[in-house]
Amino acid sequence: MPELSRRTLFLGGAAVAAGGAVLMNKPHDHSGPRDPYFLSVQAALIGAGIAWPTLVIDKARLSDNVRTLKTHLPAGMGYRIVAKSLPSIGLLSHIRDLSGTNRLMTFNQPMLSKLSIDMPDADQLLGKPLPVYAARHYFDTLPADASNAAENVQWLIDTPARLDMYRSLASDIGRTLKIVLELDVGLHRGGFEPGPELGATIEAIEANPNLEFRGFMGYEPHIPSLPTTLGWRDKALKSAWNTYTSALEQATSLIGADRMSGLTRNAAGSPTYRYYQSTDIANEVSAGSCLVKPTHFDTELLEPHQPASFIATPVIKSLDKTRLPGLEFASGAASAWNPNSKKTVFIHGGHWLADPVDPPGLEYNKTFGRSSNQEMLNGGPELSIQPDEFVFFRPQQSEAVFLQFGDIAVYEDGAIVDTWPVFPVSA
C-alpha cells in the first residue's frame, strides 16, 4: 500500500471539508401541506365568485390590530390614521369607528380632496409638504358643499421659502391656513431644527393674519433600523426626543404655554409608535401599516400585530416539473440541488411587491424572471395545488400595493362579507 504524503492528506481533508460545506449550503425542502387558514380564505373567494387577483383583508385580524394599537397608547395620547397606508373609505371608516378618532394623515392632493368630500369632518394633517400649486388646485377644485372641510386641514411646512409660498396662497384665496412645521429629528429628510430659523418662522406665522401656527410634526422611522451595538439606537431616540423637546421649548417661549397646550405635537409611525409611553413630547402618534401588517413591518415592536392583508390570485397552470426555456438540459440538476425548484405554477398576474406565503415553500424563479402577466413560482415535491385554486402573498407594503387590485375583498367568519372600493390611483 503506497504511503500517503502529508500534502495528499491535507488536500484530501480540505476536499472533504469543502464538500461538507457545499452540502451544508444545499437548500432544504420547504414544501408541505397547505395552511387551513388560507384554505378557508380560498373557499370564501371561490364561494364569492372571485377568480382574479384580489386584495383580501381579514376583518377580525384588522379589528384586533386596532385594539392592540389602542392598548399600547398611554393615557391622553391621540391617534392619527395614516390614510396612504389604508387607501379605502370603507377601510378608513371601519378603523375610525373602532378607534374613535377623526384624525387622518394625508399625503397627496387627490387623497386630500377625496377625503374632504367623503369625510368632511376629518382633521387632516399633511404627512409631507405639498407643492403650493397642488394646494392651490385643492382649493380650486373643492366643491362648494365641501368647503368647510378645508378648515380642518393642517398644512405641513418644511422651509421658510415654502411658508412664503403658502402665505401668498392664503392671501390670494382669502383663507386662514393652519400651519404645522416639520422638524428634522434625525431622519435628515428636511424640516426645521431648533434655532434662529425656526424662531423666525414661528414669528412670521404669528404676524400674518392669514396663517395660524398649529404645531409640529417629527418623524423618526430610521430608529428601529439602527443597530443596538454601543447603544446607537438608544442614542438616536434620545437625540430625536431632545430635538423635539428643544423645539417645543423654543415655541413656548414665543407664544406661551397656554397656546402650546392645544397645538398638534405629532410623532411616530407604525415602526415607532410604541416608543411613546407618555405625552411629554408628542400628544398624538400616527400609524397605519401596522393595522394590516405587510412584511416590511415584521419587527420586534410590532410582534403583537397580526398580518391582516393578503394578495390572492388563481393558479393558471400547475406543472409537476420545472423546465426553463433554452435550459431544459439543466432542469434535472437544478431540481436535484434545490428541491424547492422541482414543481412549477404559473399564476394570474404577478410582479407585485409581495412575498408568497401559501402554499408553503413557493419561490420566485430568478432565472426565468418576474412577470406581471403569468408569474412563475416554484415549489418542492410536496406542493399540491390545482388550476383555479389560489396562491396567497403578503404585501411588502400597503401604500404601493393596495391600489393595484380594485375593490378589497373583506373576509370574516369564513366568508367574503363585503367589498371596500379603494381610492383612485395616485402617487
From TrEMBL:
One of its GO terms (molecular function) is D-serine ammonia-lyase activity. GO terms for biological process: D-serine catabolic process. Pfam families: Ala_racemase_N. It comes from the Bacteria. Residues 57-292 form the Alanine racemase N-terminal domain. InterPro entries: Ala_racemase_N, D-amino_acid_metab_enzyme, PLP-binding_barrel, TAT_signal. This is Alanine racemase N-terminal domain-containing protein. It comes from Hyphomonas adhaerens MHS-3. The lineage of its organism: Bacteria, Pseudomonadati, Pseudomonadota, Alphaproteobacteria, Hyphomonadales.
